[in-house]
Amino acid sequence: MSANSISAQDNIQLPSPIREGGMPLSEALSSRHSTREFDPSKPVDKQLLSNLLWSANGINRPSSGHRTNPTALNSQEIDVYLIDKSGAYLYDATSNSLLLIAEGDHRGLVAGTADFSQDFVNDAPISLVIVGDYSKFDRDPDQAMLTTMCDAGIVCQNINLFCSANGLATVPRMTMDTAGLAKVLKLKPTQRAILNNPVGYAR
Ligand SMILES: Cc1cc2nc3c(=O)[nH]c(=O)nc-3n(C[C@H](O)[C@H](O)[C@H](O)COP(=O)(O)O)c2cc1C
């Protein structure tokens, strides 16, 4: 399917995020750890998914459009994509929905490449891929890339802590097929997949 033939029905409207609950921050920090064994039979329900995406990169001050994750100069150059067995989606924080980018199961690209892959990723019901667009910074390319990577790391830690606070399992990862993902996610040349978090329930 081409991007042009994707219709509104292919997008997924999420329930409004619930902005309270979970364990206290100090307890979430205390229990945060990486998990690499996921139960493939346990999906993440839509409400928890909405809460997770809002925590990662959602709008927490609607009057200004500012986000749960800070970005340098409020550039908001980070996007979060969700990959599950049905397709690849872009999280649109404004409409609180998932926009279908590509159909099919692309979790293998998150797992890795032919050279190095971590198969446990295919057991996680979803993976969140954190993409940065370094063209949003009007500074030298090295600085722009470094700044974008810092901003991506903050989104990743929001995900790590949300998971810890809400009984979900995750691991922050840099391993993935960045070239393959760039194609499937239809990224611009200045966008790059920087980190990913498989998410689900521990086995
Ligand atoms: C930037 C970054 C990249 C990472 N990449 C991977 C990875 O590709 N695969 C993996 O299994 N773990 C990856 N990890 C997870 C680390 O191995 C893990 O955080 C570390 O061993 C400490 O364990 P803990 O998270 O349980 O404290 C990464 C962590 C970070 C912060």
What would you say this structure looks like, in words?
This protein has 203 residues and is an alpha+beta fold. It has a single domain, classed as 3-Layer(aba) Sandwich (NADH Oxidase), CATH 3.40.109.10. The protein is 28% helix and 23% strand. The protein has helices at 25-31, 46-57, 107-111, 141-165, 178-184, and strands at 12-13, 59-61, 66-67, 78-83, 87-92, 97-103, 126-133, 169-170, 191-200. The strands form 2 sheets. The protein has a 7-stranded antiparallel β-sheet with strand order 1-6-5-4-7-9-8, sandwiched between helices. A two-stranded antiparallel ribbon has the order 2-3. Flavin mononucleotide binds next to loops.
Brief description of this entry?
It holds the Pfam family Nitroreductase. By secondary structure, the chain is an alpha+beta fold. The protein is built from five helices and nine strands.
